[in-house]
Amino acid sequence: DTEVTQTPKHLVMGMTNKKSLKCEQHMGHRAMYWYKQKAKKPPELMFVYSYEKLSINESVPSRFSPECPNSSLLNLHLHALQPEDSALYLCASSLELKSTDTQYFGPGTRLTVL
Amino acid sequence: GENVEQHPSTLSVQEGDSAVIKCTYSDSASNYFPWYKQELGKRPQLIIDIRSNVGEKKDQRIAVTLNKTAKHFSLHITETQPEDSAVYFCAASMRRGSGGYNKLIFGAGTRLAVHP
């Protein structure tokens, strides 16, 4: 398996809902990332996990809560989101956290917050 | 600070022509430079990358050049085809923190349109 997969593909939620985004890879990668991408903009880093430990939080609001249950899975728990949080949420993985390791992206979850 | 500038923001070419996209970066410690192609509604897909120990890399119709002294790198697409139409992002990878994590700083993107 040489891909990063994400579910769901699309998600619509109200501001009071709680939902989760899921990401999975079976490439043996030990670094995993969450990015947010607004229309016509580049991906923007949110969180980085290395060996299942949170390495970086790019000052993301607490209504986004990441979780890495094991080396293949990465979740993003969403609670009390705002309409401006509507975006494409991309997961990525790389072999490790070395600066020369290639990051491979999943297809993304398109999130709409009403 | 961390910054990658990308030009042009839009590029329109005729099928068969060449396309060139240029990026400059600010951090001289950057050592890895990937290029991603993103079609509408799809994931960013790596098309080519270059590490700082080489100056040029080619893969069929796609090539990337790196000038470390000037801190710029470029994507060259020859014999363009309509299926090359997409948004292209350059990025520079930087090591940050005592743990040395891998952060990609992206350019703003170039929307390439190839007309038949």
Describe the 3D structure:
The complex is a heterodimer of chains A (114) and B (116). With 114 residues, chain A is mostly beta strands. Helix content of chain A is 0%, strand content 56%. Chain A contains no helices and eleven strands. Chain A has strands at residues 4-7, 10-13, 18-25, 31-37, 44-50, 53-57, 64-70, 73-79, 87-94, 104-105, 109-113. In chain A, the strands form two sheets. In chain A, strands 2, 4, 5, 6, 9, 10 and 11 form a seven-stranded mixed sheet that branches. In chain A, strands 1-3-8-7 form a four-stranded antiparallel sheet, with no helix packed on it. In chain A, a hairpin with a 2-residue loop joins strand 5 (44-50) and strand 6 (53-57). Helices cover 0% and strands 59% of the residues of chain B. Chain B starts with a strand and ends with a strand.
Task: Summarize the topology.
The complex is a heterodimer of chains A (114) and B (116).
Chain A (H helix, E strand, L loop, with lengths): L3 E4 L2 E4 L4 E8 L5 E7 L6 E7 L2 E5 L6 E7 L2 E7 L7 E8 L9 E2 L3 E5 L1
Parallel strand pairs in A: 2-11
Antiparallel strand pairs in A: 1-3, 3-8, 4-5, 4-9, 5-6, 7-8, 9-10, 9-11
Chain B lengths: L3 E4 L2 E5 L4 E7 L6 E7 L6 E7 L4 E4 L2 E6 L4 E6 L8 E11 L4 E6 L3 E6 L1
Parallel strand pairs in B: 2-11
Antiparallel strand pairs in B: 1-3, 3-8, 4-5, 4-9, 6-7, 7-8, 9-10, 9-11
| Largest sheet data of chain B | 6 strands, mixed
What is the count of β-strands of chain A?
Answer: 11
- H-E order of chain A: EEEEEEEEEEE
Provide the gyration radius of chain B in Å. 14 Å
Alpha-beta classification of chain A:
mainly beta
Overall strand count of chain B: 11
Strand/helix succession of chain B: EEEEEEEEEEE
Termini gap of chain B: 41 Å
What is the overall number of helices of chain A? 0
Main interface by residue count: A-B, 24 and 28 residues
**Uncertain regions of chain B: pLDDT < 50 for 5+ in a row?**
none
Shape of chain A: globular
Question: What portion of residues of chain A belong to β-strands?
Answer: over 45%
